[in-house]
Design brief:
Elements lengths: L3 E7 L4 H15 L1 E7 L10 H5 L10 E4 L8 H7 L3 E3 L7 H4 L16 E6 L7 H14 L3 E5 L9 H10 L4 E4 L3 H9 L4 E5 L7 H4 L2 E4 L10 H10 L4 E3 L10 H14 L4 E5 L1 H4 L6 H15 L3 E4 L9 H18 L22 H11 L6 E5 L2 E5 L4 E4 L2 H10 L7 H20 L33
Parallel strand pairs: 1-2, 1-3, 3-4, 5-6, 5-12, 6-7, 7-8, 8-9, 9-10, 10-11, 11-12
Antiparallel strand pairs: 13-14, 14-15
Helix pairs in contact: 6-7, 12-13
């Protein structure tokens, strides 16, 4: 088969960079190419209709690739080029990724073997409707089981009816209570797991007819664990073992060692870890903590975790655990580093920054011929550039003061608002070490929200040259 011959369309400023990328990429990706440079300075300001009136694709081209920021319906371009037309990446430096030439998850990535129990804390204080709504959100985020967290000293007469409602909505349900009457009502209604059982309530476990989580009477010494396991085994009660994860400063490291010890004693037993004692009780964003704890679970063979989303910094823990369990499963099973596999878990800072560099940015600034402002984040500074000015600094207020001193043309209220919004995003990117691209939302991993383009109306055609 003949290699594809791709026709790339770009603007004047991007032409040198595009040719450098394609010179290296084309042999590796197995295509030949042509480059058409349209009479416009910045390719990102193209629209599909504008391109359709100017494109001249060669007859032997098999596909046309436009810059990823081109707006509008591509059908007029397809008709004008008489070729299939598609958008490339928004940044031409991402072309290798676009053609599958960079690292990423393999086709079989995404499998897992850790079950997520998501607890609804103080569920007895919530309405039935609130519980059902919360449970649906937790399930959509990746929860396998909805855990009803009861409140000591606050009897819950309606727990059985709540379990029935959850079951009818298609949820699997566990119950976290030390009150035998509540547990009995919940299990009779269809709860499949009880948290937790030790010497205080193990005699009743055989009557519940479901699986239970065994905890030691004394977590520090594991006292009582073996006796409870022996009794439940004799009575045919299915169980999981939870040596109890302790918060930092209260025996965290020793509690991890106990998970190893329990696995040594019971190599075939199912185990559970309640990870909220770290995510909820540590002043740190929960995603990294969840990844580390699920990695520990994957290596030790702890096949279920109980998580909560009470404190604000942990309010996306279920989704984090869902992504983390896939990442650690692949890393452990394939014996590869858990890197360049799950970008959705990289939220605060970006994996890499793409920069023009001092020389490249200066060259770009020198080539701009119009008065439309471009915003960049480079080398620890904000840059505001058009054909008349190249302002740079770390403080957007000082930058805007400098801009006003130049008496810029066409800086009406809407344009000033647009620049202020873009500079606010740029400052955020500068502060956190994130990639900033004008008119694009910052990448917050799985927390990112779509953003309507705020591009200031500039018109199109020759006025952009």
């Amino acid at each position: 088969m003949q290699p594809e011959r791709l026709h790339f369309v770009t603007g004047k400023l991007a032409e040198p960079s595009l040719r450098r990328v394609l010179e290296d990429l084309a042999p590796r990706a197995g295509f030949s190419y042509t480059v058409e440079v349209l009479n416009i300075t910045v390719a990102a300001l193209m629209t599909a209709d504008w391109v359709a009136r100017r494109i001249k694709a060669p007859a032997d081209a098999t596909r046309v690739l436009l810059p990823g920021l081109v707006k509008g319906d591509l059908q007029p371009v397809r008709e004008a080029a008489a070729k299939p037309v598609e958008l490339g990446p928004k940044d031409l430096r991402d072309l290798p990724t676009h053609f599958g030439q960079s690292q990423g998850p393999p086709s079989d990535y995404g499998r897992y073997d850790i079950e997520i129990l998501a607890e609804i804390n103080h569920a007895n204080r919530l309405s039935r409707e609130a519980i059902l709504s919360w449970a649906e959100r937790l399930r959509s985020d990746g929860a396998d089981v909805i855990d009803l967290g009861c409140t000591p000293g606050e009897p819950w007469a309606a727990i059985g009816e709540t379990v029935v409602a959850l079951r009818e909505a298609g949820h699997r349900v566990s119950v976290d209570s030390i009150v035998s009457r509540e547990v009995a009502a919940a299990t009779a209604a269809g709860a499949e797991l009880v948290l937790s059982v030790n010497q205080s309530n193990r005699d009743a476990a055989a009557d519940w007819g479901c699986e239970v989580v065994v905890v030691p009477d004394d977590p520090v010494t594991l006292a009582g664990l073996d006796a409870t396991v022996e009794l439940l085994t004799a009575r045919g009660v299915k169980f999981r073992l939870d040596p109890v994860l302790e918060p930092i400063g209260f025996g965290f490291a020793a509690s991890l060692a106990r998970y190893h010890e329990v696995r040594r004693r019971y190599p075939e037993a199912e185990m559970l870890m309640g990870i909220g004692n770290l995510t909820e009780l540590t002043d740190v964003d929960s995603a990294g903590v969840n990844v580390m704890l699920l990695a520990f679970c994957e290596e030790v063979g702890v096949r279920s975790v109980l998580t909560t989303e009470v404190i604000n910094w942990a309010r996306s823990s279920v989704r984090e655990c869902d992504l983390a369990r896939r990442l650690v499963y692949h890393a452990v099973r394939q014996r590869v580093l858990p890197k360049h596999l799950e970008p959705r878990l990289v939220m605060l800072r970006d994996p890499r920054l793409l920069e023009y560099g001092e020389v490249g940015l200066a060259k770009l600034a020198a080539q701009i011929k119009d008065r439309n402002f471009r915003v960049f984040v480079e080398r620890g500074e904000l840059h505001l550039i058009n054909s008349a000015v190249h302002l740079h600094g770390r403080d957007p207020f000082e930058l805007f003061t400098q801009l006003l001193a130049t008496q810029p043309e066409k800086l009406d209220a809407s344009h000033a608002f647009y620049l202020g919004y873009e500079l606010a995003k740029a400052v955020t990117a500068l502060t956190l070490g994130k990639q900033y691209t004008q008119d694009e939302a910052l990448d917050w991993g799985f927390l990112a929200l779509p953003e309507r383009s705020g591009r200031h109306p500039q018109g199109e055609g020759d006025e952009l040259l």
